[in-house]
Write a structure and sequence with these properties.
The protein has 6 helices and 7 strands, in the order E-H-E-H-H-E-H-E-E-E-H-E-H. With about 200 residues, the protein is an alpha/beta fold. The structure holds flavin mononucleotide. The site of flavin mononucleotide has 20 residues, from helix 1.
C-alpha cells in the first residue's frame, strides 16, 4: 500500500499556475504508488468567514471542529493520512485566504493547554508538503509562506518539504509549457510518496 497523501488546493484559479504544478505533483505521486486525495479547498463552502474561535474543539475530547460545514469532514480525515500537502499562490505576502481559512481550523486537531502551553495532537506522523507559486522572486512572499508552514511542521514534530515556484505570471501560460518544472514537480510527488 502506497502513502496516503492529502493535497489541499488553495488557488481559486482551477487552471492556474498553482493547480498546474499540483497536477504534475499528483501525477508523480500516483506513478510512485501513492493514494492521493485532492481537495479543492478554494471552493469548499464554509459556514463562517474563518475560524470564529468558539473553542468548541477545545472543550471536547475529540479532535474535531465544532463548526458543521464542508471543511469539517476534510479536517477529520487529515490524521488518517501520511502526507499533507498545502498548495497556494502567494497573495499579498502570504498564503491565499482560502487556504488559510482551512488551515486556521486545523486548530481543532490540537488540544492546547493554556496552563502549561503544551499541545497534544494526532499529527506527529505526518510529513508536510508545500507547493507555492508567486509572481515575484522568492523574497516577495514565497519565503514567508514557506516559513509559515515550516513553523507549523516544527510545532507538530514533523518536517516540511517544499516546492517554491517564483516568477509565475498570471498573465501568461508559460508555466504550462515549462518542461523542467514539470519534471521537478513530478519528482517532488515521487519523493513525498516514498519519504519516511
Ligand atoms: C491578490 C493577489 C495577490 C498577489 N500577491 C503576490 C505577492 O505578494 N507576491 C508574489 O510574488 N506574487 C503575488 N501574486 C501573484 C501570484 O501569486 C502568482 O501569479 C501565482 O502564480 C498565481 O497563482 P494561480 O495561477 O494559482 O492563481 C498575487 C496575485 C494576486 C491575484
Amino acid at each position: 500500500m502506497g502513502k496516503k497523501i492529502m493535497v489541499l488546493s488553495g488557488s481559486p484559479r482551477k487552471n492556474g499556475n498553482t493547480n498546474t504544478v499540483v497536477g504534475w505533483f499528483i501525477e508523480g505521486a500516483r506513478d510512485a504508488g501513492a493514494v492521493v486525495e485532492l481537495i479543492d479547498v478554494a471552493s469548499l463552502k464554509s459556514k463562517f468567514n474563518g475560524c470564529i474561535a468558539c473553542l468548541g474543539c477545545q472543550k471536547s475530547d475529540k479532535f474535531e471542529c465544532a463548526v458543521d460545514d464542508e471543511i469539517k469532514p476534510v479536517l477529520a480525515r487529515i490524521p488518517e493520512k501520511d502526507v499533507l500537502v498545502f498548495t497556494t499562490p502567494v497573495y499579498f505576502y502570504g498564503p491565499s485566504a482560502q487556504l488559510k481559512l482551512a488551515m486556521d481550523r486545523m486548530y481543532s486537531l490540537a488540544k492546547f493547554n493554556p496552563h502549561t502551553g503544551e499541545i497534544s495532537h494526532p499529527l506527529g506522523h505526518l510529513t508536510l508538503g508545500l507547493i507555492s507559486t508567486g509572481g515575484g522572486d522568492v523574497n516577495r512572499g514565497l519565503h514567508i509562506v514557506e516559513q509559515t508552514f515550516s513553523t507549523l511542521a516544527t510545532s507538530i514534530g514533523s518536517k516540511l518539504e517544499s516546492l517554491l515556484v517564483p516568477f509565475a505570471s498570471m498573465y501568461s501560460d508559460d508555466i504550462k509549457h515549462n518542461g523542467e518544472l514539470r519534471e521537478k514537480a513530478m519528482a517532488f510527488g515521487h519523493k513525498l510518496s516514498v519519504t519516511e
